[in-house]
Design brief:
Bound molecules: magnesium ion
CATH topology: archaeoglobus fulgidus dsm 4304 fold
Number of helices: 5
CATH class: Alpha Beta
Radius of gyration: 16 Å
Structural class: alpha+beta
CATH architecture: 2-Layer Sandwich
CATH superfamily: archaeoglobus fulgidus dsm 4304 superfamily
Order of helices and strands: HEEEHEHEEEEHH
Number of domains: 1
Largest sheet: 8 strands, mixed
Helix content: 25-40%
Strand content: 25-35%
Shape: globular
Distance between the termini: 28 Å
DNA sequence: GCGACAG
DNA sequence: ATCTTGTCGC
């Protein structure tokens, strides 16, 4: 797929924060267009080898509702930015975008391992990648960066708003009964209820929705095969 | 100043 | 993110 090449990545952490503050207003909440009946959903994740300082990235494309694999791409590159909470996209997005470039066809939705609006400046990695791709994107994180939530039902499908500074920034979503929730937030061009429904549709069996779960399994294999 | 802190 | 043994529950 074609990627708008409108972001410099060789920046300092201070510049990165300024970029986030400038781009936060560009995020589109709400679906840009209705999703197809059987949407293609891409999952993206990274693995890291500290010995070689390399990032192993993968994007897998699945089709709903069957979750059958449609396409898979990978890319390996040197890490050029440290992990700083709140600045994850400056570390992980460049190599993930290389993966998206290799995709033959643009997915209808993208799911990123990390937050979107549930971020101190409302511009997590799912917002950043969604904006650069100009595709509906959701963040699906395994732990909280900012905010908190109250009473969450124990059953699969239960969800509760994630609140930060009196704003709803996402949703805690129970994808498996009695198991720790995942945290879903808007990345770009999508609304929160749709994002939550998609995450649940993508997680019929495991806590982690299949798109990011498959991407995670793949990058782990890739790292162990290379290093 | 202190604690929190996606991956 | 990675490292790392055993342990618990379906
Ligand atoms: Mg990850």
């Amino acid at each position: 797929m074609h990627i708008a090449h409108r972001q410099r990545w060789d920046v300092t952490p201070k510049e990165a924060v300024q970029i986030q503050q400038r781009l936060r207003g560009k995020i589109m909440m709400g679906l840009s267009a209705p999703l197809p009946r059987h949407p293609l959903i891409a999952g993206a994740d990274i693995s890291y080898d500290k010995g070689s300082n390399k990032l192993f990235a993968a994007v897998v494309v699945l089709r709903l509702p069957s979750l059958e694999a449609i396409d898979t791409v990978t890319f390996v590159d040197r890490a050029r930015f440290p992990y700083v909470p709140g600045l994850l996209s400056f570390r992980e997005a460049p190599v993930l975008l290389e993966c998206f470039k290799k995709l033959r066809r643009a997915p209808d939705v993208v799911m990123i391992d990390g937050h979107g609006l549930a971020h101190p400046r409302r511009f997590g990695i799912a917002c950043h990648i969604g904006w650069l791709l100009d595709v509906p994107t959701i963040g699906c994180a395994k732990s909280i960066l900012v905010g908190d939530y109250r009473r969450l039902g124990l059953r699969r499908g239960a969800h509760a708003p994630l609140i930060h500074k009196r704003e709803v920034v996402g949703c805690a979503v129970r994808t498996r009964t009695g198991v720790q929730p995942v945290y879903v937030s808007i990345g770009h061009k999508i609304d929160l209820p749709t994002a939550v429904r998609l995450a649940l549709r993508c997680a019929p069996r495991f806590r982690i929705p299949e798109p990011t779960r498959q991407a995670h399994l793949l990058v782990t294999q890739l790292r162990l095969a290379n290093g």
